[in-house]
């Protein structure tokens, strides 16, 4: 199976890692010049990765419809996130309020760890690649996406 992930932010990188880890061939398309651009400014440049509290603590802070997040939290929880980053060489620390940061206090170390995971899993990364539209298998039945349309009019996969 070939999976195309649109967007190289935190969610896109984690999605690409998950898909590649499950055995898919993955292409990650990002319109910017680098991955995780907004991660650079999170937590005042330190990147508050997650919270080290237990699952019940995390869910108790969800303001509305916490049940909606059960499957997401239990499918890839805060401990799994921390383990992924540490396995990719980014040491973490827990501060007041159970907040988790890279030991270096540099968000760039989080981005570097996620990028290492993508490369280790052989995810094809295409920077400067904006998606113009989705290519539906059947235009009338929008349940199955077949690919993407890029601004140059080409569709499907592009290296770059």
Describe the structure.
- With 160 residues, the protein is of the alpha/beta class.
- It has a single domain, classed as FAD/NAD(P)-binding domain (3-Layer(bba) Sandwich), CATH 3.50.50.
- It has helices at residues 10-21, 55-60, 70-75, 78-87, 107-120, and strands spanning 2-6, 25-29, 50-51, 92-95, 99-102, 124-126, 133-138, 141-149.
- It has a 3-stranded parallel beta sheet, with helices on one face. Strands 3-5-4 form a 3-stranded antiparallel beta sheet. Strands 7-8 form a two-stranded antiparallel sheet.
- Helix 1 packs parallel to helix 5.
- The radius of gyration is 17 Å and the shape is globular.
- The CATH class, by name, is Alpha Beta
Mean pLDDT: 88
Number of domains: 1
CATH superfamily: FAD/NAD(P)-binding domain
Distance between the termini: 21 Å
The percent of residues in helical segments reads 25-40%
The CATH architecture can be named as 3-Layer(bba) Sandwich
Total number of beta strands: 8
Which H/E pattern describes the elements? EHEEHHHEEHEEE
């Amino acid at each position: 199976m070939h999976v195309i992930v649109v967007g190289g932010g935190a969610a896109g990188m984690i999605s690409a890692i998950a898909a590649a880890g499950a055995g898919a061939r993955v292409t990650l398309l990002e319109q910017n010049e680098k991955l995780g651009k907004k991660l650079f400014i999170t937590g005042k440049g330190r990147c508050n990765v997650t919270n080290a509290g237990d699952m019940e603590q995390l869910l108790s802070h969800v303001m509305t419809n916490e049940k909606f997040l059960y499957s997401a939290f239990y499918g890839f929880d805060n401990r799994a996130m921390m383990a992924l980053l540490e396995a990719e060489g980014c040491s973490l620390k827990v501060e007041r309020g159970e907040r988790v940061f890279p030991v270096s206090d540099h968000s760039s170390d989080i981005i570097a760890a996620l990028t290492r995971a993508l490369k280790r899993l052989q995810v094809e990364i295409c920077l400067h690649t904006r998606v113009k539209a989705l290519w539906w298998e059947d235009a009338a039945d929008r349940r199955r996406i077949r690919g993407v349309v890029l601004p140059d009019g080409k569709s499907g996969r592009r290296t770059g």
